[in-house]
């Protein structure tokens, strides 16, 4: 669809621009401001230049080491999450019933975890995984496996990952389902006539049609898991030790816990820049896919 | 006559092959799919069941041993929440800022999404990208500056502070979803309406908005959802009078130990609004999660 050039369209966009700028630009300027200053308290600030950034990006300093290890933990977490949730989401989407009242039922039940406040998600799993009063912890312990997510780092990781799979796989599944729904029946009929195997149908019809939504799913999941805060905070509080301290937990601890404004601000900016870089890749790939599709349709 | 019969029988033959192939494809698959789906839904429902189960028990029963269902059902936990003002006001506070936020986000996003879907203008792509980056900004980054900002303008501890703060990620999201739905409406409709003498506001409200009603519903659903589930900003920007339910829940830890039953009941009640909202948009939910772009 060709769009007409009309700069008056800015008037339509202006309210959105104003409200988002109010919420985004002003706070961001505050952060930049803090990141280059130091304080001795009493609201007296002095110029610190790039000192905080140097400390943050220098792995030999205490702050730098802390930052690097939480960054690595966060990346590892995002990676594992994607590795489990994407194939599982595709499998669930393929298992959706085709028609009848079960479709609506499955959709509603699947979407339910997505609408639970994040701290309640943490609470649910905190209770569910406990060895004494939680079903999961109790059953696992009864099976003879020593499981305690508050004491053992590996158990804590497994619990957080299972929790995230529980929480977000439905998002991937719903996206894939939307992609699958857009495939015309004629494609399947053609495949049947050719005697295509189940795998061939998946490889040559379903997967290419899901490519676009999968892209959205992968990037949304990556970014949201990269920003994860509330659920692990409620479940493990970043512990045991620092085993599950992800970047955002670290950041909030610095900013609101210790009120270490300079360090927290520098960390915010670096954190934001990483997300921004990923976001740019996302946007470029998306618009390229869009352009490619328009060219094909034209 | 013989000709038609021959044609008919060959039709039957060619039809028979795909049906057989079809049966071969779907025969074992049906049961596999049902098993997969059942297992997945079971996995989703078990933790929720456990929460509901706990909310109907007394603390005595919860701590004295594992029971798969409540031995003697008690509604005391729910009664306490509905009668204690410090509890139920949490729900009212949460719903207040969520609704303000949804209304604000949608009404701001509608014209902008129209502009993005219909026109090309100076800096449109950069603006769209910049909007999206805000959807992807970690709330943890904004917690402290928001606290400063809203304290400075005197909105701290009001539902407006949280509603405005949530606009940061909900407005871009609403623009994104609505733009997807609007691009699906042919431009000819706009032009025809203009030729028929409709003024633009009249056209937009009377003709265009009903056409994308499902899109508006889905966008509202998403704004509701993301505002409802977010806690970090909501908790940072409130202290007493506008405290969200999610923050109230931390009160269950007291000197006498954890009040598990009450915590579970409060948790169950936070799931209810979401479940109600999903029911209303269930037919559009899949398309909505694909941001209107399928």
Automatic annotation (TrEMBL), chain A:
Topological category with respect to the lipid bilayer: Multi-pass membrane protein
InterPro entries: MetI-like, MetI-like_sf, Sugar_ABC_transporter
Protein's UniProt keywords contain Membrane: yes
GO cellular component: plasma membrane
GO biological process: transmembrane transport
Highest taxon of the lineage: Bacteria
Membrane-crossing segments per the record: 12-36, 75-94, 101-128, 156-180, 213-230, 264-285
Matches recorded under Pfam families: BPD_transp_1 (PF00528)
UniProt keyword list: Membrane, Transmembrane, Transmembrane helix, Transport
SUPFAM superfamilies assigned to the protein according to its UniProt record, in alphabetical order: MetI-like
ABC transmembrane type-1 domain: residues covered: 71-282
Main location: membrane
Localization (cell): Cell membrane
Family: Belongs to the binding-protein-dependent transport system permease family.
Protein name: ABC transporter permease subunit
